[in-house]
Automatic annotation (TrEMBL):
It comes from Mucilaginibacter lappiensis. This is Phospholipid/cholesterol/gamma-HCH transport system permease protein. The chain crosses the membrane at residues 12-33, 45-65, 77-100. Keywords: Membrane, Transmembrane, Transmembrane helix. InterPro entries: Permease_MalE.
Amino acid sequence: MLPVLTILGDAISLFGAYIGVNLSSVTSLHFSFTQVFQSLSFSDILPAITKTFFFGLAVGIIGCYKGFNSSKGTQGVGVSANLAVVLSSVLIFIIDLLAVQFTNLLGLN
C-alpha cells in the first residue's frame, strides 16, 4: 500500500501547491498542472515510486518479526513496537541512501 499512499500524497501535494499559487495570483487548474507535468520527467517519478516498494517491504518484515518475537504483556508489546519503529526508520534511511547511489550510478538523476 505504500506506493499507492505515495501517489495519493503526491497528488494531494500538487493540488495544495495549486491552491497556494492561486492565493497569490489567479491561474487555472489546467494551466497549473500542465506546467507541473511538463517539468517532470520519467526519471523523477520512477526512482521515487520504486523506493516505496522496498520501504514497505522493510517496514512489513521488521514489524512482523518484532511483533512475533515480542515478550508477553503490554510492556513487551510496547518495547517491540518501539524497536520496530526505530529499526524501520534506520533501515529506510539506509535503503534510501543505497537507492540514491544506485540511481546516480545509472544516471537517472
